[in-house]
Amino acid sequence: MSSNPIDIKKVHIQDSFWTTKQELIRKEVIPYQWEVLNDRIPEAAPSYCMHNFRAAALLHEKKQSLGKAFVPPKYSYRGFNVLPDDPRAPKDDEFYGFVFQDSDFSKWIEAVGYSLATHPDPELEKTADEAIDLVCRAQTEDGYLDTYYIINGMDKVFTNLRDHHELYCLGHLVEGAIAYYQGTGKEKLLRAAMRFADYVAERFGTEEGKIHGYPGHEIAEMALLRLSEVTGEEKYAKLAEYFIDQRGRAPLYFDQEHPTPKGEEYKVDYYHQAHIPVRDQDEAVGHAVRAVYLYSGMADLARRSGDEKLFAACRALWKSTVSEKMYITGGIGATHLGEAFSFPFDLPNDTDYSETCASIGLVFFARRMLQIEAKREYADVMELALFNGILSGIALDGKSFFYVNPLEVIPKACHLDERKMHIKPVRQKWFGCACCPPNLARLVASIGTYAFTEKEDTLFVHLYMGSELEKNGRKIQIESGLPESGNVSIRVSSGNAPEPLTLALRIPSWCEDHYQIEGVNVSSEDVRDGYLYVNVPDEETTISLSFELKPKFVSVDARVNEDLGKVALVRGPIVYCAEEADNGDGLGSLYIDPRAEIKEEKISISGANAIALDVEGYRILPNEQGAEFISPLYRTWQGEKEEKKTVRLIPYRLWANRGEGEMRVYLSRR
Ligand code: FUB
Ligand code: ZN
Questions:
Q1: C-alpha closest to that of 389 among 349, 432, 420
Q2: CATH code for position 540
């Protein structure tokens, strides 16, 4: 039997690490994003998100007042990213921004919903209610809700499923509406999302007369399955099932929608994970965010239906992703060309994409796999992505963000080399295509639902974080020293009417099974797939866990050419990097000795506490020995001149909080 995420209202995170992040989302990111969505931050790229909802609402109002005299706009393609001629004075009745700009509101309201679930805030709720009123005013009478088409002309609705994101906007709207309903009990947005889903369900399906397509950018699949769970309405699950089953079936829908040059079809469909039916897919391909969103929906469906073939595909896709295409930071999407996966073991460090959203999608996928089978391999990846490739996406003050999370940066190259211009050496205030910051906000705001899942008498602890929750009438208080120390304590109250309670405690693979447990009797037989199953006695019980957490060097599979002869430094789930701020520039000339002692030092970077690691190494000095060979650039080799150097590394997530400078995760080794 599978497990479910814990009810967000039942888990209170009180953790020295995660509470700080959640507070940042609540106090900085949510209010800041609201200003951005309303174009009130002069130095941030304009969003036009709320402008578009207002424009759509105005259009309906005009229709009402003009009655039969109203002439609906006729669709004419204006572009994927529509910018006003005069950015300071956008026209009231035009759509601006990316075609999927509505989704920025949906992600914002999702973060708001989760935040209100645990931190009631009447002022924020009032702002959110007003925003919802506006969004609902933008919806058409028959339930359609995508401002790009409402404003630009409804006659072409669902005619470009491949590129335009109506079903993506539906998915995000559903997710946002569910979160707001869960956080506040208010149904208005949920009803609007259901009406849009009903509209889509009417139009799509295998039946004659219906559209036989599916989302160009996945997410509706997992969102609709969740909507079905929350509302108890089977029709939403059926729609999700249709989208998943139909994808990649011949004749390929996107090729029909966009007649594709012969020989190019595979490329196009592959990019959208629509080249073959999903149950036959075994390699993670195409646009990375789309891929992991699809796999998450597939896992949800497999859990719901018990479809073994579908689950086998999920497993194969998981394996392909994490054992051939994932960076040590939990980043995925090795190429910026199409924001996509590359071929197996192609993991360049300085041109990669590793979009924040893609790592977030990987966390979605991991949690869903965990729900089906509690194996630590999923939780290990979830934790890795969270602490590294995701949290690197946000500055310590919550006011700037990375979209792309590279493993190696030379700022000059980002400014001058076109191949690297997608890489920013400092976090940005906002992005015209602002998918990542609000995605990060909704994930962090709901982190408890990733840390804990439950079934009948078992609580699964996938991630350790200080928290209070309840299970089977027992109060559970967790204290965690992670990521700095591996000490965890779990106190379980006796409760009035004790029912059986099992805690399934993840033994993180980074401790290499070196851990101690006190307070309960367990044996090695209680460990299954990296989880220690503890039957908690009826009386009050305190379990103390101590996971060995020491720094170590990691090398990469030899097929990753990029990293041959190099090592990365990790400490528990934390991946480290060297920065110019500590080591000077020219990080590529540093060598470290993986056999040397690693020293730890407590540091603070812009108010964030962390542990820095110092390791002995060398710096290769400019080669002035040997005779010139053809030009001064080359010399006959006579050995390198080097000087000793202690190299300092800091947690990767903290890089670029001290101004612009070089950064590198993998260092050459001796
Ligand atoms: O297309 C919507 C979002 O924008 C994607 O998920 C991101 O990769 C970015 O392209
Ligand atoms: Zn993104």
A1: 349
A2: 2.60.40.1180
